[in-house]
Amino acid sequence: DLENKPVMEKTISKIRQLLVSGQAKAVGSWEGITDYKEAESYLSQVVQNVLSGKSSAVGMDSETTALYARKGYPLGLCFCDTPGYGRYIHADLFDTKLIGMVQQIFDSPADIVFHNLKFDQHWFEYHFGIDFNKAYDENRMHDTMLQHYTLDERTGTRGFKSLAIDYSDLGVYELELEEFKKSFCTLHNVKKEDFTYDLIPWDILKVYAAKDPDATLRLHNKFLPLIRKNPQLNSLYTNILIPGNRFLQRIESRGVPFSVSRLKEASAVVSEKIREAQERIYQFDSVNRYELDKGSAFNPASPVQLRTLLFDYEGLTPTGIMTDPK
Q1: Is residue 24 classed exposed, middle or buried when 0-12, 13-18 and 19+ CB atoms within 10 A define those classes?
Q2: Helix 144-151 to helix 160-167 angle, to the nearest 10 degrees?
Q3: What is the pLDDT of residues 86-111, one digit of tens each?
Q4: Average pLDDT of the segment spanning 166-189
Q5: Environment class of residue 259 by beta-carbon count within 10 Å: exposed (0-12), middle (13-18) or buried (19+)?
Q6: CB 177 within 8 A of CB 200
Q7: Contact 294/271 with Cβ under 8 angstroms?
Q8: Residue predicted with more confidence, 157 or 164
Q9: How far apart (Å, rounded) are the C-alpha atoms in residues 113 and 56?
Q10: Do residues 4 and 60 touch, judged by C-beta distance below 8 A?
Q11: Could you tell me if 72 and 66 are in contact, meaning their C-beta atoms sit under 8 angstroms apart?
Q12: Contact at 8 Å (CB) between 264 and 258?
């Protein structure tokens, strides 16, 4: 449709650029960490950077085995406080000391940035006990997906990898991972929707995972200044989208209390109104004629019967196709 035409044109243009120029060649260091001392040293440096003001924002991500924190386990956590320098730390390394260092980063003056914050927050909170409240209260929690939505509300434009291609020089860095996924599913007869990241070899996953927080940080550095320049956009992002995200995450994590007795009462009221409406339907002459012609009772829940009644018996004029013809 017309709304998505610019998105399609932009996508085609980007594909042409990649075909002509090849993948972007970003310079940097992206590694996985499986050694405890190395993880401790890295997180200690990030803590020092954010407390001293050397790093004003930290991009983060998580690699997991499932979409829901209570139905899977984390493979590792990803960090980047300097563009071009990302690290992916194996989940098994996180003891009380390392988790405490991550909490120090969250509680520092630095911005904490995710892409699709709500998803990762479940994993950081449920499996590692990280407290997000101080960062939220100080307006330091950020989501590059919501940032991009603030700047461009059209649908179909917020895919993380697409944004990384558009607004960074990291290129199509998940290519090797996607090739492995494709070949693995074919070889082992596994459906793509059943594939989980714990099936990916460490040497393939580590670079991909280490680049994710780097891309997130780069998007943040690109999008947030644009939002801050516009008072209306800044208010939308700061006062509505981020608090709304926090609220929805709490609902998903804690559930919503409700009154069974009031639900039953509401159900009774709605059922009665439906019954009254159905009684009124059968008082229309067109319904009576339909039933005489068909020799059976009219069913208002049937789209086919309803269409026949409205267009053939009531004589209404169709306004056009309202559903997907497929």
Answers
A1: middle
A2: 70
A3: 999 999 999 999 999 999 999 999 99
A4: 84
A5: exposed
A6: yes
A7: no
A8: 164
A9: 11
A10: no
A11: yes
A12: no
The DSSP bridge pattern shows strands 74-82 and 85-90 to be antiparallel
- Could you identify the residue written with the tokens 């981020």? 242
pTM of the model: 0.73
Q: Cα separation of 9 and 32, whole Å? A: 37
pLDDT at 15 over 70: no
CA separation, residue 120 to residues 105, 113, 139, 176, 189 (Å): 16, 10, 18, 24, 30
* d(C-alpha 213, C-alpha 188), whole Å: 31
DSSP 314: S
DSSP reduced 3-state for 85: strand
d(CA 251, CA 73): 21
* Phi/psi of residue 170, nearest 5 degrees: -75, -20
Query: Cα–Cα distance between 283 and 287 in angstroms, integer?
Result: 7
Bridge partners (DSSP) listed for residue 113: 59, 142
Across 188-213, b (16+ Cβ under 10 Å) vs e yields eeeeeeebebeebeeeebbbbbbbbb
Inter-helix orientation angle 117-128/96-107, to 10°: 140
List the 141-143 sheet strands across, edge first: 29-33, 85-90, 74-82, 57-64, 111-114, 141-143
Contact between 180 and 204 (Cβ < 8 Å): yes
The three-class DSSP label of residue 195 is coil
Mean pLDDT of the chain: 88
**Coil/strand/helix, residue 82:** strand
Contact 110, 55 (CB under 8 A): yes
pLDDT of 248 > 90? The answer is yes
